[in-house]
Specification:
With 263 residues, the chain is of the alpha+beta class. It has helices at residues 29-40, 73-76, 84-92, 94-97, 110-122, 141-144, and strands at residues 5-9, 12-16, 205-210, 216-220, 225-231, 238-245. Strand 1 and strand 2 (12-16) form a beta hairpin.
Length: 263
């Protein structure tokens, strides 16, 4: 645990506090709620579960990775809690504050961050989620499938009659959870195909393009960089894995210029 230090010079006390415990400036929670709905609610919920990001109700004072969501390894491994100061630095530059996070969206304006944090401080209790009404009978796994039986090439035909009536069930909130890959396991592939691990430990890779010479360029959106992967002769793994460009702002697409065999 970090401890604050006090240094005294000619009767004037100067405090050096733990940066993780610094308090953000007072913000406008009403304006922050408007900003949240405009900029954050698409991914984050302040009510129930679900969405592309975790539920943020009660986030101030909470340990990262504490709710049911597929957090990045960086946040799951964190041992601190979200204070106003940490939230401010994270919103300003997520990948710099928590290297390895998959959060790509930043809030550059200090006033906007203060107002958003003021709004998040008002979300102090767990929201009450209405329980879904029970359905009649068990789901028909022969129609909807089951992950134990699914495999590449298996098709399902689902008609309107197979679906529940409108508003009978709540919106789905089932984000993926990342778990370590069991040793010697590989994804299933159709007959005649095989799968090998080509590259790993990428930070939110979003787009991949093959250069005319066979090199693979990958945008790592969360890390703000472009990585180049040079395959081995057998094409099953990488011979070189290096950063081609960094310091970018959420890169996504890639294009080679000029067109042709020698961009």
């Amino acid at each position: 645990m970090h401890k604050a230090s006090i240094w005294v010079f000619t009767g004037v006390a100067i405090f050096f506090a733990d940066p993780g415990q610094s308090e953000g400036a007072n913000g406008d929670s009403i304006r922050g709620g408007t900003l949240f709905n405009q900029q954050c609610a698409f991914c984050h919920s302040n009510e129930g579960s679900g969405g592309q990001g975790p539920n943020l109700r009660g986030v101030v004072g909470r340990k990262p990775g504490a709710t049911e969501f597929g957090y990045s390894g960086a946040l799951k491994a964190a041992s601190w809690v979200w204070t106003e100061g940490r939230l401010d630095r994270f919103l300003e530059n997520p990948t710099a504050a928590v290297p390895g996070t998959s959060m790509p969206f930043a809030v550059p304006e200090a006033k906007d961050r203060a107002d958003l944090i003021a709004y998040l401080k008002t979300l102090t209790s767990t929201a009450t989620i209405a329980a879904p009404r029970p359905r009649q009978g068990a789901p028909n796994t022969s129609i909807f499938g089951d992950w134990h039986a699914d495999s590449p090439g298996l098709r399902h035909r689902i008609t309107l009659g197979d679906l529940p009536p409108p508003y009978e069930t709540p919106s789905a909130g089932n984000p993926p959870l990342e778990v370590p890959r069991p040793p010697q396991t590989k994804p299933k592939a159709p007959d005649g195909f095989s799968v090998d691990l080509f590259a790993d430990r990428l930070s939110a890779p979003r787009m991949i393009r093959t250069a005319p010479n066979g090199d693979l360029f990958v945008t790592e959106t969360a890390a703000g960089r472009v990585r180049v992967l040079i395959p081995r002769e057998n094409g099953k793994s990488t011979e070189q894995n290096t950063v081609y460009a960094s310091g970018l702002s959420e890169p996504f697409g890639i294009a080679f210029y000029p067109q042709g065999a020698d961009p």
